[in-house]
């Protein structure tokens, strides 16, 4: 495994400064945001695709800093009911896939997206319950009329470019848990896999090693981000919480730097399960902790993970 960082918290630094800083911390790979909801400060596909010399410069910069790109990110909603928003997200996705091909990066991270509830919708509608009967009808429309047709085409485009798409399993979008990830992988094929981020599953009550085991073979990227569930607030209001993330004291849960939501024993089990299922890619720190600055959260996460990651394949054991 390799220790990585999604560089968004360093958006105030040029990449030529961010890379040596990260290398000095012991980071081995970076994930670069290319647009959508992700800040594209360090990577603009529309610029690089028009000027191949810029791609060569980026490759040289990475080489000079002994750094690899683990994935490109363009988290958007390509099935948004607003056609203009959907079209922009689709274009960013396609540009990012093209750039990944040029950079020889095998994975593009994004969201599955969430449509509206009918053709005249203006905003996405995330369904969280099975009754009244309107909701199953909405789900049927979203999956059969919007989600699957779109990703069949987009997945085919990614396959042509030799790139895999990794969905961040994220509430608010159609692929938000283990079951929905399994479904879209089964329906579309292996071009679609998971960008597994435990922080979005902890608060749903998911046991992370169990979910990893269920998704064996379809985890294409892994985000190291934690989540702290507030027992008192959750006991009062449950886990479905629409309060602002700035209301850390009032929310049922908030995102935390790794180690501040769950202890080292939990994260050791997660990393060990990744090894068991054959994942040997990047473990990429994503910072969204509202109680720490980006720089502090990133540095604390690096130190926490250094002693937990499994870097080497096991040798021949005495019992083999």
UniProtKB/TrEMBL annotation:
InterPro entries: IolE/XylAMocC-like, Xyl_isomerase-like_sf, Xyl_isomerase-like_TIM-brl. The keyword Thylakoid does not apply. Keywords: Isomerase. Gene3D superfamilies: Divalent-metal-dependent TIM barrel enzymes. One of its GO terms (molecular function) is isomerase activity. Signal peptide: none annotated. Residues 24-307 form the Xylose isomerase-like TIM barrel domain. This is Sugar phosphate isomerase/epimerase.
């Amino acid at each position: 495994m390799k220790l990585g960082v999604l560089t968004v918290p360093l958006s105030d630094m040029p990449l030529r400064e961010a890379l040596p800083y990260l290398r000095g911390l012991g980071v081995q790979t970076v994930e670069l945001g290319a647009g959508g909801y992700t800040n594209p400060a360090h990577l603009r596909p529309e610029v690089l695709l028009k000027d191949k010399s810029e791609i060569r410069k980026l490759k040289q910069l990475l080489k000079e800093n002994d750094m690899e790109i683990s994935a490109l990110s363009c988290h958007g909603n390509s099935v948004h009911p607003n056609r203009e928003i959907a079209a922009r997200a689709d274009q960013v996705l396609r540009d990012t896939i093209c750039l990944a091909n040029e950079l020889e990066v095998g994975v593009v991270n994004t969201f599955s997206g969430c449509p509206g509830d009918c053709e005249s919708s203006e905003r996405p509608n995330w369904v969280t319950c099975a009754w009244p009967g309107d909701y199953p009808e909405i789900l049927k429309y979203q999956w059969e009329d919007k989600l699957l047709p779109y990703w069949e085409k987009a997945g085919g485009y990614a396959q042509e470019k030799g790139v895999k798409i990794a969905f961040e399993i994220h509430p608010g979008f159609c692929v938000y848990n283990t079951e929905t990830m399994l479904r879209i992988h089964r329906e579309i094929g292996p071009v679609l896999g998971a960008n597994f981020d435990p922080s979005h599953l902890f608060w749903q009550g998911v046991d992370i090693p169990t979910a990893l085991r269920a998704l064996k073979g379809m985890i294409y990227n892994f985000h190291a981000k934690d989540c702290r569930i507030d027992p008192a607030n959750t006991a009062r209001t449950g886990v479905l919480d629409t309060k602002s993330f700035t209301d850390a004291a009032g929310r049922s849960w908030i995102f935390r730097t790794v180690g501040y939501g769950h202890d080292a024993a939990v994260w050791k089990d997660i990393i060990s399960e990744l090894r068991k299922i054959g994942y040997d890619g990047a473990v990429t720190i994503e910072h969204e902790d509202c109680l720490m600055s980006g720089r502090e959260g990133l540095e604390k996460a690096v130190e926490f993970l250094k002693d937990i990651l499994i870097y080497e394949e096991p040798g021949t054991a005495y019992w083999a």
